[in-house]
Design goal:
CATH architecture: Roll
Number of helices: 7
CATH class: Mainly Beta
Structural class: alpha+beta
Strand content: 25-35%
Radius of gyration: 20 Å
Length: 209
């Protein structure tokens, strides 16, 4: 993605935080005709120490989804994670020669997915997603009879992807220090929408001064 130097994430840990917090991601691969194919899905993120502490993404989709076949063909793929985003008014500037903009946080993760074909691996993936989204459901899943669990898992394909390239863009107008105070006054402390407040919180974190 287009990533000016002043919008690069200042800390890799913040990139991972966005990926974990906004883990309903967009997976894009290229089909046999060279056209993009997209699936939206939840992702579980880990760091594999045996792979040099690289970021590893685990995910699944319906077996009927044509994307499964593309991934089995080892087509290059990219996950997009979109964090908070919101319109920003030019009213935060004293100078009237300004225009509106859209502030946002986005992360792109690239790699080549590998299929997890065994039921044990699929089960571990599902349990990791349950732990993220509804831990109380774990006991109910374990209590389901084995035949039903096997049937459910046979209807999905599961994958892991070691991230080979990671890009993160924190477009928060942090390169405009003259507007920071006005932005915080206009959108922070409960005055803006949830996304506007989140963006101001992130701006404060990466530019505490």
């Amino acid at each position: 993605m287009y990533l000016p130097k002043h919008f690069e994430c200042p800390d890799p840990a913040l990139t991972l935080e966005i990926m974990r917090t906004h883990n309903f991601a967009t997976l894009t691969s290229v089909d046999a005709d060279g056209a993009p194919f997209v699936t939206h899905l939840p992702v579980a993120l880990t760091q594999a120490t045996e792979e040099g502490d690289k970021v590893v993404l685990h995910f699944h989709m319906a077996k009927a989804n044509p994307h499964c076949a593309m991934l089995r063909e080892k087509r290059a793929s990219m996950f997009a994670f979109l964090g908070p985003h919101a319109y920003m008014s030019p009213s935060v500037y004293a100078d009237l020669r300004r225009v509106p903009t859209w502030n946002y946080i986005a992360v792109h993760a690239y790699g080549q997915p590998q299929e997890l074909a065994e039921n044990d691996a699929k089960d571990a993936l599902l349990k990791s997603l349950i732990a993220i989204h509804e831990p109380a459901y774990a006991d109910q899943w374990r209590a389901l009879d084995e035949k039903y669990q096997t049937m459910m898992m046979s209807a999905i394909c599961a994958f892991r992807m070691t991230v080979t390239k990671l890009e993160s863009k924190f477009k928060l107008n942090q390169h405009r220090p003259e507007a920071r105070a006005a932005m915080k006054a206009k959108y922070g402390e409960g005055k803006g929408t949830a996304d506007e407040q989140a963006l101001i919180e992130w701006l404060t974190r990466i530019t505490p001064a």
